[in-house]
Amino acid sequence: MSYDRVFTDQELQEMSAQTQDLIKAAIDAGELEKAKILTDRLYEELAFIHDGYMCWITGLLTHIYNKYGAKAVEEAERDAHTMEAKIALKPPEKTDFRSLVQHAAKALHGHVHQPMSITEDEEKVTITVDPCGSGGRIMQKGGYEPEVGFAKIKEAGPMTWGMKDLPMYCVHCPVTEMLAMEGPGDLPFVHPVSICDPKAPSCQYVFYKNPADIPEEFYTRIGKKKPDR
C-alpha cells in the first residue's frame, strides 16, 4: 500500500539542516523576516534541550538525596563538575579579570531566556539574573511543588551556604565555589571567579577585582577560611 507524500524535498532538506545554517542562508539571501523567525526557532530548540537536561539532572540528584542522603549529593556534584570541566566547561585561555568576566557572561547566556544585567563599581562587577535561567526557572515552573517532587536539601551546611531547604539544582553553585577554592593556584575563585549571592533580591554572580576584598562570610559559608593574604 502506498500513501501520499507528507513533505516536499525542500521541506525535508530544511528540517534536517542546522537552524543556524538556515539563519545565515536567509541573511545572505536578504530574507530578514525569515531569519528572525528562524532565530526564535533556534531558541525554542535550545530551550527544549536545556530545560530537559536541567530537570533530568535535578531528578537524578533528588533520587540520590532521597535514597543516600546529602553527603552523596555533594560527592556526585563534585565528581560531575570535575568530569564536566575536562570536556565541556574548560577554563578560558585568558585569565585576566576582564576576560574572566566576559567568559562568565558568555557562559551565562547559555541559559536560554535568561534576563541579565551587568554593573560595575570600584570594587567589583556584578551580573544579576532575574530569574536565574536554570534553578530559578525550575522554581517558576513549579519543580519543587509536590506534584513534581524535586527535593530541597533540608540540612544546613557548606553545600547549602549554611541555609536550610536549598533547592536541589542550586547545590551546584556552592559546590563549584568549594572546588574553585580547593583547586590549584594562589588566588581563590579564579575558576570560576564569581561568587553567588543568594541573599540578594535576585540571583547574582559577584566578581571581585581584588580577592582580598572578598567578604569573609563567602568563605565561612562553604566551610572555608579566608586566606591571610
How would you describe what is shown here?
- This protein is of the alpha+beta class.
- The chain is 46% helix and 10% strand.
- The protein is built from 8 helices and 6 strands.
- It has a 4-stranded antiparallel beta sheet. Strands 3-4 form a two-stranded antiparallel sheet.
- α2 packs antiparallel against α3, α3 packs antiparallel against α4 and α4 packs across α7.
- The longest helix has 37 residues.
- It is globular and about 75 Å long.
- The protein starts with 8 loop residues before the first helix and ends in a 9-residue tail after the last helix.
Q: Care to count the β-strands?
A: 6
What topology, given as strand order, has the largest sheet? 1-2-6-5
Question: Structural class, please?
Answer: alpha+beta
Number of helices: 8
Please bin the fraction of helical residues.
40-55%
